[in-house]
Each structure stands twice: as structure tokens, then as C-alpha cells.
């Protein structure tokens, strides 16, 4: 049993997230998967995605950390990748080369045909190829990885071929070993490199049944409650004081300037408290299965009759980790089929969930033009967590599959880097297919489409509403921003792009997401306004400057009291006047965009 499997066997709680999100700007090409960054292979044409593993391996939940730092691997400096060359003991890395004969994109063998299509190019033969690898390359599950699609570039084919085969046989030490890089850099030509690569391969089902070794047990003992080996570090840690959140959002004069409190390290992850245990019992009584599958397992959840009014308040008090998977699926589905934005249906309508899960599976068998970029981002999106620690481990493969399928859904958005931390957070609590479904809901019902679309129209709208709230309730702060030429896009872009994954501790991010899933995009705006509200005295200080303000608002914020912050957010959103104003400002922004008057509307 791997370290990851052991974690999920012993606990249903989820994870932690911290992001070091680099290279984020307002040019859509900086985020677009087809941008020319790091390698000259991002123009990959159509691809066939990684093969599907068994439902068991894809349905396991996980708990990742996201870090846009170079992972602790070899081959960190990556030049343009040359075409793969045959390596006798690493046939996994030498997929068949595209032949001159154009092949169908999704070949399907007939009932009596062999598993390899007739037009399949020859695979390099070697007496040293392992029987396990040879078997994996000839199984139906990996069939689509054996044949390049028409017009598919070699590097793109190499990526999906590698993920497909490893999804069948797995990798050794999943959860506690670093693993071996196979796609961003080729295995070296030396015999030692080839032997190391072969040794890192898993043994299929046998790998999953192995007992934990002593080394694994020691490492598991050091995990925090979310599955992290250690707390991430950040350059600028500042305390988000609780005192400002004890006052309601209203126009007020600035107080004496106070220097923000810097922190040297993140505080320890809080343990499960008696209050959380009590809330687990309340959620157990509040939610009931929407239905059951053939095995008797709950197939979705809904709020028990008569308790619908309690849902909103209990979400803002904090969804217990044990119930977060069920709650998130229910909230996303309820928001997606609600009669109006911002309202929630809890009656248990399906809303196309089954169809979206089929769409996810079908997309795995179709090529995507973003596989090379997705593969580049996967290992640097998440690290330091038992699920995502190992290169090509189950967590990294699941993330690749989700992003691969999702990149095909919207031709406008395609794939951008900001999707990685969002998908990884969802994978902390949901299966890959459910994560895909949630991403689709976020894209459409929660308006993330406009956040990721070229030009970032949704981002600019959110910042406009944010600045109008600041102008209305913190006029002195607005004037300071204006005088020091600090626009919202300078500090708030990463907040919206990653849904605050890179700005607050993981447990606080989860609380923000709980509120976001029940109340919609307005939550993100109010959280942004709340951060400015907490530091308004510093921002209006006579000594404030562009540098000091931007440095402060680019920090990693550690709440002194999470409950105080979340309660303040809930009270702001419960104010009908404020919500009406926010809706009005969104309408005004849309009209300005339509008439071309939006150019000078932002600071």
C-alpha cells in the first residue's frame, strides 16, 4: 500500500494549499498554454490524451500543495527537447514514431483484431524491455497512446504516451520518492540513467497491494492533517489583523498609521477542534444522500427537508473537512441550476452531472493542443504533498488528465496556468471526473470563463466593482491609490486568477472557497476589499508610496482570526444595499465596455 493510499485509508479529511504563482501578468499570452515559455514545443498540434486507468485509481481523493517553484528533480535546465531516440531499457520513453501513412485519431480494433492497429509504426525492439512494460504497451487501456494522431507533433505524442502507460503500471514510491523525469527532459543515454528509469516503474496492481515499509511509515508520521510534509515558505508573510473585521464596512476616517506585523514563518496547521467535531455531527444530520449507486454508495447529497435555511450560516461557520467533498459537489450543482445568480437550489437536481462525467472520459481519448504546456506545469503546480510529491504519481496523473480534458471544452479559454491551482485544490476533495465537472461549473455558472478569456474581461469587471466599493466606503484609501498610481490590476490580479490560492494559508483558502461556492463571484470581490480594509490606515499614511503599498498588498496574508474575517465577509454579502450596488456596478461596467468607455474607468 502506498503512502498516499494509506493516508486516505486512515482519514477522509483533506489538504493544504499554498502557491508560489510566478509569471502572472495581464497579457493573456503569458497565461495561455500555447505561449512560448521555457520550451519551443508549445505549438503542439492535436493530441490523444493519456489512457484511462481503472475507475479505482482515478476515483481516489487527494490533497495537494501547489508551488510554482522548480521541483527538486534532476535536469532542471531544460533546452528544447530533441526527438526521442530508442533506449533499450526504457521503451516507455520511446513511443512509436509517426509514419508517413496518416493514421486515424482514435483507432478502434475490431472484435478479432489485435490490439495494435494495422498502421501502427514499429516499436523499438529490445531484449531488455521489461515484461511488465511490454504488457502495459499492449493493453486496451493504453491503446490510444500507441498511435500518434494525424499531424501530432512528436513531443506532444511523447507526453501523452508516457502518462498513458504510467497510468496503467504506476510508479514506485508514490507519495514519498521524488520519481524520475521522463517528459520535460529525456532519460539520459547512459546505462545508469536507463536503469534508474526502469527501476522507478511501478508493478501495476501489485504496487497498490504492497504493505507500507518502515521508511514510508516514518514519513507519514510527519504529515500534517492535510497531508503536507512541511509548511511552505513565503517571502513576505504579514499578519492579517482581526480588529478591523470587528467593525462593519462603512465610511470612516482613517486612524493612526500602523505598521503591518511581519511573520517569520507560517503558524502550524490547526488541529481538529471540539467545535469542528460538533459541526461534523450537525452536517451529518443536515445532509442526506440524493440517491445510491448499485453498490449502495451515496450518489450525491442534498439538504434534508426543513434544514435548507441553516445551510448558508453553517457554510460561513466552516464546512468540516470530513464533509467538504460532499458539500462542494452539492453547492456547485445547486448554484449551477439555481434560478438566479447568487441563489442556491438544494433540491437535488442533477443538472447534467452524469453527462459531464461522460464528457470528461470521452475527452481523454481525444487530442488536445495543450498537452506539452500542461505537462510542463503539472510538477511545478503542486509539490511537497504526499499525493503530488512523486513525479507521475497518481496525483500528478490525475491533474494532467483533468486539465487535458478541460482544455478541450472551451476554444476561447483553452488552457491557462491559473487553472492548475484551481484543479489541484478540487482534486484534494473530489475524484478526477467530479473535479472536471466542478471546473465546468466554475467556468460557466461562476463566470470563470470571463476571468480566463483573452483580455480578462471578468477580471477587469471584478476590479472595477472592487474599486467602486473602496471609493464608496474608503474614500481616503481610494485617493491614496489614485495619488500613488496603484491600480487594482497591480496587486489583485493573482487573487482572482487563482481564487486566493497564493495569498492566504490553505485552511483559510478553503473557507474562502466555501463562501465562494455558496454565494458566487461577489465573494472574491469582498475578500479583496476586506484585505484593503484591514490595512487602510497603513495605505493612507503620509509615508505611503507606490512601493510600500504594492509591497504590502503583494504579501501572503496570515489571518489572526479566520472566523472574524469570514464573518465580516458574510455580513457584507448579507447587506442588501451592498449587493444591489455591486449588481449595478457590474451592469454599468458592461455598458461601458459595450460603448468603449471602459478604458479610463479603472485606477
Question: What topology emerges from the helices and strands here?
Answer:
Layout: H1 3-10, H2 28-31, H3 55-59, H4 131-136, H5 154-169, H6 191-199, H7 205-209, H8 214-221, E1 237-240, E2 262-263, H9 274-286, E3 287-289, E4 301-303, H10 308-317, H11 321-336, H12 353-363, H13 371-381, H14 394-406, H15 419-427, H16 432-444, H17 448-452, H18 457-473, H19 475-483, H20 488-497, H21 506-519, H22 522-534, H23 536-539, H24 546-553, E5 556-559, H25 562-574, H26 576-595
Parallel strand pairs: 1-5
Antiparallel strand pairs: 1-2, 3-4
Helix pairs in contact: 11-16, 11-21, 12-14, 12-16, 13-14, 14-15, 14-16, 15-16, 18-19, 18-20, 18-22, 18-26, 21-22, 21-25, 22-25
What's this model, at a glance?
This protein is an all-alpha fold and 603 residues long.
Which percent range describes the beta-strand content?
Answer: under 5%
Spans with pLDDT under 50 lasting ≥5 residues? 3-91, 95-133, 135-143, 341-351
What proportion of the residues is helical, as a percent range?
Answer: 40-55%
Total beta strand runs? 5
Helix/strand class = mainly alpha
Biased composition (Low complexity): 9-19, 88-117
GO molecular function: GTPase activator activity; small GTPase binding
Pfam families: RabGAP-TBC
Organism: Pterulicium gracile
Description:
The chain has 603 residues and is mainly alpha-helical. The chain has 3 domains: 268 residues, no CATH class; 82 residues, no CATH class; 140 residues, Orthogonal Bundle (Cyclin A, domain 1), CATH 1.10.472.80. Helices cover 45% and strands 3% of the residues. The chain has 26 helices and 5 strands. The strands form 2 sheets. The chain has a 3-stranded mixed beta sheet with strand order 2-1-5, with no helix packed on it. A two-stranded antiparallel ribbon has the order 3-4. Helix 13 crosses helix 14, helix 18 packs across helix 26 and helix 22 crosses helix 25. It is globular and about 70 Å long. It starts with a helix and ends in an 8-residue tail after the last helix. This is Rab-GTPase-TBC domain-containing protein.
Amino acid at each position: 500500500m502506498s503512502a498516499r493510499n494509506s493516508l486516505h485509508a486512515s482519514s477522509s479529511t483533506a489538504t493544504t494549499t499554498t502557491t508560489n504563482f510566478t509569471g502572472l501578468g495581464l497579457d493573456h499570452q503569458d497565461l495561455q498554454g500555447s505561449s512560448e515559455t521555457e520550451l519551443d514545443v508549445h505549438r503542439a498540434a492535436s493530441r490523444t490524451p493519456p489512457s484511462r486507468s481503472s475507475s479505482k485509481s482515478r476515483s481516489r481523493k487527494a490533497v495537494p500543495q501547489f508551488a510554482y517553484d522548480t521541483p527538486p528533480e534532476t535536469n532542471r535546465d531544460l533546452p528544447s527537447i530533441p526527438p526521442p531516440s530508442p533506449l533499450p531499457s526504457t521503451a516507455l520513453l520511446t513511443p512509436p514514431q509517426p509514419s508517413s501513412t496518416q493514421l486515424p485519431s482514435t483507432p478502434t480494433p475490431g472484435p478479432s483484431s489485435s490490439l495494435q492497429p494495422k498502421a501502427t509504426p514499429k516499436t523499438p525492439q529490445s531484449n531488455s524491455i521489461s515484461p511488465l512494460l511490454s504488457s502495459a504497451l499492449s493493453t486496451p487501456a493504453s491503446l490510444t497512446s500507441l498511435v500518434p494522431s494525424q499531424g501530432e507533433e512528436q513531443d506532444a505524442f511523447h507526453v501523452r504516451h508516457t502518462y498513458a502507460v504510467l497510468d496503467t503500471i504506476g510508479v514506485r514510491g508514490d507519495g514519498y520518492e521524488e520519481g524520475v523525469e521522463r517528459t520535460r527532459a529525456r532519460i539520459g543515454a547512459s546505462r545508469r540513467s536507463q536503469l534508474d528509469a526502469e527501476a522507478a516503474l511501478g508493478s501495476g496492481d501489485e504496487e497498490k497491494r504492497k504493505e507500507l515499509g518502515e521508511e514510508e511509515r516514518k514519513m507519514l508520521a510527519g504529515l500534517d492533517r492535510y497531508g503536507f510534509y512541511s509548511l511552505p515558505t513565503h517571502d513576505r508573510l504579514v499578519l492579517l489583523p482581526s480588529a478591523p473585521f470587528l467593525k462593519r464596512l462603512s465610511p470612516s476616517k482613517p486612524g493612526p498609521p500602523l505598521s503591518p506585523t511581519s511573520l517569520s514563518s507560517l503558524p502550524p496547521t490547526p488541529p481538529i477542534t471540539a467545535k469542528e467535531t460538533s459541526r461534523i455531527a450537525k452536517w451529518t444530520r443536515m445532509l442526506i444522500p440524493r440517491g445510491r449507486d448499485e453498490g449502495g454508495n451515496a450518489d450525491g447529497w442534498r439538504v434534508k427537508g426543513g434544514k435548507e435555511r441553516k445551510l448558508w450560516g453553517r457554510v460561513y461557520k466552516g464546512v468540516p473537512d470530513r464533509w467538504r467533498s460532499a458539500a462542494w459537489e452539492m453547492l456547485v450543482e445547486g448554484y449551477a441550476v439555481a434560478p438566479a445568480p447568487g441563489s442556491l437550489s438544494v433540491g437535488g437536481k442533477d443538472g447534467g452531472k452524469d453527462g459531464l462525467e461522460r464528457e470528461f472520459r470521452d475527452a481523454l481519448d481525444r487530442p488536445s493542443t495543450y498537452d506539452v504546456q500542461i505537462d510542463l506545469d503539472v510538477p511545478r503546480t503542486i509539490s511537497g504533498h504526499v499525493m503530488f510529491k512523486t513525479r507521475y504519481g497518481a496525483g500528478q496523473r490525475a491533474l494532467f488528465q483533468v486539465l487535458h480534458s478541460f482544455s478541450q471544452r472551451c476554444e476561447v479559454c483553452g488552457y491557462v496556468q491559473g487553472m492548475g491551482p484551481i484543479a489541484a485544490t478540487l482534486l484534494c476533495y473530489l475524484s478526477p471526473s467530479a473535479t472536471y465537472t466542478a471546473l465546468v461549473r466554475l467556468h460557466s455558472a461562476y463566470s470563470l470563463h470571463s476571468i480566463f478569456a483573452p483580455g480578462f474581461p471578468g477580471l477587469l469587471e471584478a476590479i472595477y466593482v472592487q474599486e467602486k466599493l473602496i471609493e464608496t466606503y474608503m474614500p481616503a484609501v481610494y485617493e491614496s491609490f489614485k495619488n500613488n498610481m496603484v491600480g487594482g490590476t497591480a496587486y489583485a490580479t493573482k487573487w482572482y486568477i487563482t481564487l486566493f490560492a497564493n495569498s492566504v494559508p490553505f485552511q483559510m483558502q478553503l473557507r474562502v472557497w466555501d463562501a465562494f461556492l455558496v454565494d458566487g463571484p461577489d465573494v472574491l470581490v469582498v475578500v479583496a476589499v476586506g484585505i484593503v480594509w484591514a490595512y487602510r490606515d497603513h495605505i493612507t499614511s503620509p509615508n505611503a508610496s507606490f512601493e510600500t503599498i504594492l509591497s504590502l498588498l503583494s504579501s501572503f496574508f496570515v489571518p489572526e482570526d479566520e472566523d472574524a474575517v469570514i464573518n465580516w465577509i458574510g455580513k457584507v454579502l448579507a447587506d442588501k444595499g451592498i449587493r444591489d450596488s455591486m449588481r449595478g456596478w457590474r451592469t454599468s461596467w458592461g455598458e461601458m465596455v459595450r460603448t468603449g468607455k471602459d478604458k479610463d474607468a479603472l485606477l
